[in-house]
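Here's what a typical entry looks like (Antitoxin):
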Amino acid sequence: MDRIPVRELNQNTSAVLARVQRGESLEVTVKGTAVARLVPITTTQSLLDRLVAEGRATAPTTSGPVPMPPTLGDPAVEAAAELAAMRDEERW
């Protein structure tokens, strides 16, 4: 990986970015100390793969559709109507 001083980046920004676009990775230095890295963007990696590589996400452990939770209660009973009926009974 080549190193370039920040002054060269400031004076030749287009040329430096052209090098990165061609696939080079460059470290930017200030007073000889690396402070930044310019790397080309790769589109071959999916967003999930990139986040996993960065440690910001965990890959799924299963494949296929996510199973739905079990249906609770009787699907033929409308919950809102039952609740309204119960409230009406309490009021009288």
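The helical segments are 6-11, 13-21, 47-54, 79-91.

More examples are in the samples folder.
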